[in-house]
Amino acid sequence: xxxxxxxxxxxxxxxxxxxxxxxxxxxxxxxxxxxxxxxxxxxxxxxxxxxxxxxxxxxxxxxxxxxxxxxxxxxxxxxxxxxxxxxxxxxxxxxxxxxxxxxxxxxxxxxxxxxxxxxxx
Amino acid sequence: xxxxxxxxxxxxxxxxxxxxxxxxxxxxxxxxxxxxxxxxxxxxxxxxxxxxxxxxxxxxxxxxxxxxxxxxxxxxxxxxxxxxxxxxxxxxxxxxxxxxxxxxxxxxxxxxxxxxxxxxxxxxxxxxxxxxxxxxxxxxxxxxxxxxxxxxxxxxxxxxxxxxxxxxxxxxxxxxxxxxxxxxxxxxxxxxxx
Lengths: 121, 194
Hints:
The complex is a heterodimer of chains A (121) and B (194). Chain A has 121 residues and is an all-alpha fold. Chain A is built from 5 helices and no strands.
């Protein structure tokens, strides 16, 4: 294997030699240049991991702005559920009224039918 | 810290608005830092953080607690950053001039011993900003925040294989930026061999 072929594999090999094929690792073990490059990748990864503890300071007002947005979202949510509740109650009322009217109408029709039968008899 | 956050998450899931606010106070600087690393500028980072907390607030009930809250939040932030950058429809990354040398490339200098101090972190940050947003997202989420490939692929809307390819390309570019002298030597030798 040539160094330039191995160079493309080094960014993956740095995660662990188990990921690389045996002949690739055999080249790295015998090639000082590729070993040096692998060391650079290791240093790069170490430096990148160290960034995790490096917390940046957000601009003043960021927290206030996040909380204000959340509060507004919370209020919108509450308003939506309130409106949904009212809409439910309204629709429920209409349904009950419709059912009651239907039942009343059915009773009137039934009574009429009975009266007609009595008169005919 | 982990237990405190877990208690706050439980309270917030039960509808305690103040507990969610405390969660924001405890995590917003870290979330902002990730957003900044993904977007590359303060204005976009602030927008992404706002959106990330709104999404987290709305979907908190779906957080099962099998991952750490911050990991879950980072995934949301990564997703928001991707959406935000796509929406902008223009690539805001500023490619560093090729003539710029991030490190002192003089032979007597020691590139191997670098990347330790505050200046080097600034240089590393600058090198990250020189990547395209797509490459930067993968390398930041994997190598800085240790998110699994699968999660990164899901949040960025790409396959796991594509995420790995991007990661390797990003690492290669970063190494070339940070250790230019050795890269030039290798390029010269490769050219001679061809």
